[in-house]
Amino acid sequence: MDAILPVLLFVVIAAAVSVGLVVFAELVGPKRHGAVKEMPYESGMDPIHDTRRRFDVRFHLVAITFLVFDVELLFLYPWAVASRSAAGIDAAVADGFVSSRGLVFMAAMVFTAFVIVGFAYDWKKGVFRWR
Amino acid sequence: MTTSLETFKLLAPEIALVVAALVALLGAAFAGLRSGWLVALIGIAAAMGLAGGLPAAGTSIISGPITIDGFSGYIRWTVLVAGGILALVQGGDLFRSAVVRGSGLSRGGTCEEAGTFLILLAGLSLVGIANDLVLLFIGLELISVPTYILLALKRTDARGQEASLKYFFLSLVASAVFLYAATCFYGLGGSTSLAAIGDALRSSDPRLTGMAVVLLPVAVGMAMAGAAFRMAAVPMHFYAPDVYEGTSPGNAAVLSTLPKVAGIVVLARVLGLAIQPLGIAGEIGPAAQIHLSFLWHLAAILAAITMTVGNVMALVQTNLRRLLACSSIAHAGYLLVGIAVAAAAAATRAERPFDGAAAADTMWTIGLGGMSATLLYIATYVVATAGVFAALAYLGHVWPEWSSGSGPRPPREEITDVDDLNGLSSTNPVAAFSLALFLLSLAGIPPLPGFWGKLTLATAALEVDWTSPVTFGSRRAWFVALAIILVLNAAIAAAYYLRIIAAMYFRSTKKGVQADGGLAAGVGMLVCLVLVLMITVQPKRLFTPAMRAGAAASNVLTAADEPAAADEARLVHSD
Fold first, then answer.
1. ipTM of the complex
2. Which of A35, B73, B362, B422 is the most buried (most CB within 10 A)?
3. Whole-model pTM?
4. Total domains in the fold of chain A
5. What is the pLDDT of residues A89-103, one digit of tens each?
């Protein structure tokens, strides 16, 4: 019970906050109705239209460029934490999962190089020029 | 299980492929490189050289998450050879564009295509050597994601768009389904390492058995579904005709060969979980027996349906690429026969463990065994199919510029219908002869490679449990029935392959065939022709590696003339 108490508390607080905010908005928020107000919100576009519509390619470019940095952070954070913590890379080397610290460093550098290649490719192809 | 520098050295061919991909992609962006497929061919040649320098088949090395043994070596070589041929097919105008600069013949975007194709090859090669669920999944995604890009780059009309989107969404679903299977296996084995999962599965821990009764059919079924999508087997086959028709011949060649190899490897790895490693005595636990039994029942049923559906669908097609798509579905069925046989043979071995000379008659069979037959079949299939598509690409037209320029796109002049091949024997006898030979090989006419593939599959099916009588519902009866269905299907298949050959040789046409698809595609066709003739003349050169590879995958002693039986497992330690 002690082990899952924080999780339980977290779930309860999360539920309370989200329900509370909706109820609070319902109580104090202004109430105006109309066709436009009741439309589902989709980044300012008309949500119901033909799916074969032309679409600005810059949306996709931004999304993919974001992914480059997002994935980079996703992997570099655990690596950074593990290289400073006693239970991290040192423990892995001691347990024989990895042969040396240098190998992990090399792997992280190779990974970063791949991400930089993607970034450089984007740059050269003119993704960052907002035409 | 140690990840060391040695692990990276063993990955040298894959690293070479990725480096070549980076050269192609960055060269296009920074140096205006136009002949990407030349870079691809050089990269594949370098990878072949590096793969040749690795320890030979017969040794087995487990290093971290990878395994180098006869099986992964066979897959790697199949991938590299197929990759070389497919690069020639894809880069049809590669020689002209390399020599004549700015002649208008060199298309933009070839470097991007070549780069993504090289990454695809590296992913497939990784799937072959993966010994870990995570690496296996990453390898499969390294195949899928470049495939989406290749398909999307070759869209020029609504059909091409439909093809790329259809493949994208279905492949996503298939990946998710396979991931679900991976989580089930992880839950059962408590590790991502396939070796550790296998050890857990084969133990007779009663708690695990209780869980396995519920989870294993789910896991095996999901893994089968994920593999079935990649192999284009029933029930995940329906995308194949639309996608092959909508894209270029080169892409259709990639789709009909490389993902099939990946599907076979996935099934071989799933099957390998329940097989005791060589040299370890003792029976497998009830969980592993459930695994094997479920796997062979499922594979046998799907094989029978897939073969029949593919062949019957192909009979009514007039569009050549739809016909080849249906034929590739049928071949997925033949391959599944081999997987079913391998699983059933393993189940038989588990029931009656080896006990000397008395058992020698019942278990060590004269044929190749299911897994080896599958691997032999996939190699013959890949060479013949790549050859057919190379011929179609060569006879067609160079694919128009992919970039969305403002000018009008040149029309696609492709060989689309069977009737387009009318009278080919007089207008282009070399292409007609090669195409006829590839189609006869796919149909399984002796002594062409496809015949050896079908023969070994059928004999392997007949050898399952062959000392027991054929009674209704017995394992032997299942596989006798499967062998009969296989042979009947080969007969049905001959009908539509011969229809194409008849069009080429016995009909006449007024318009000539342009054969404007580029010299490289023609060279790819000739390479396939040489390979087919080599296997026809000396089938043993393919039999021996296939036998070794199958033995390595299913841990069976073989009667191979070389000392594959004395496989010594070597564990690489850190330096």
1. 0.72
2. B73
3. 0.86
4. 1
5. 888 888 877 888 888
